[in-house]
Amino acid sequence: MTNITEIAPDTYRINTYVPEIDLGFSQFLVKDEEPLLFHTGGKALFPIVHEAVSKLIDPSTVRWVGFSHFEADECGSLNEWHQVAPNSTGVVSMVGKLVSVDDFAPKNPAKGMIDGEEFSTGKHTFRFLQTPHVPHNWEAGLLFDTTTGVLFSSDVLHQNGDVEPLTFDSVTERVKKTLIDFQAGPLAGYLPYAVETDATLRRVAAQKPTTVATMHGSVYTGDGERAILEYAEVLREVLGAASQAARI
Ligand SMILES: [Fe+2]
Ligand SMILES: [Fe+2]
Question: Per residue in 204-219, pLDDT tens?
Fold first, then answer.
């Protein structure tokens, strides 16, 4: 079941819940002179996402396809988007562009971003944050809409379940339970906890987002700085050195 929710001005969440794995996948569309899609979803999801986008704009006008890291739910149908939207261009870290993305989707070479770099789509200005290994992978980055305060946070604030599209209540406890559940099952090791993890998340929190648009789970609107700092604490508790030592 796919639903569309406006989570901020011009900003739409397209979500498909997959009951077999109790997990939802969100893509975000920012309507602007140059429309931006953040996350494509995997190839299997492409017809669904394409149809949802077509309810909001002409899909052939998608100009930018942003994502955090090279993984199927982030960018699996990037080539399909290049086919239906001939002027579409990936927006990813320079590392992602050089290491994987231009090899995977050579038709339209990606825009390789460096930390702090900004670009405009018309009314909206986006700032790229290079966040190696947050949420995971060397090439990881996050995109912050400085116009609306929406942080496109990828797997940061991931919550399992068929949850509400948007919430004003803290999701910290749900995030913590999801991470603990993952650690106990076949998906253990989902996220790394590296020496730079805490500092990276503090840098993200300092953007003071008003909305944190996660790929999996409810979008959170409220004190985004606090939400990210609480997330950093959850990661430290569940994945940090003390808990790792306890498992040995
Ligand atoms: Fe991921
Ligand atoms: Fe994901």
Answer: 999 999 999 999 999 9
Element (H, E) at 79: helix 78-84
* Ligand 2 centroid – CA 124 distance (Å): 24
Parse the chain into domains and list their residue ranges. Answer: 2-247
Our CA angle for 217, 16, 215, nearest 5°, is: 35
Distance 136 CA to ligand 1 centre (A): 6
Q: How many CB atoms lie within 10 A of CB 16?
A: 17
Q: Distance between CA 68 and CA 36 in Å, rounded? A: 14
- Return d(Cα 151, Cα 222) in angstroms, integer: 12
pLDDT tens digit sequence for 32-42? 999 999 999 99
Structure tokens of 155?
């797997």
Cβ-contact 224, 212 below 8 angstroms = yes
Contact 91, 40 (CB under 8 A): no
Contact 74, 68 (CB under 8 A): yes
Say how many Å lie between the CA of residue 161 and the centre of ligand 2: 14
In CATH, what is the architecture of 2-247?
A: 4-Layer Sandwich (3.60)
Q: Ligand 2 centre from 74 Cα, in Å?
A: 6
- Under DSSP, is residue 132 helix (H, G, I), strand (E, B) or coil? coil
Residue 149 has pLDDT above 90, yes or no: yes
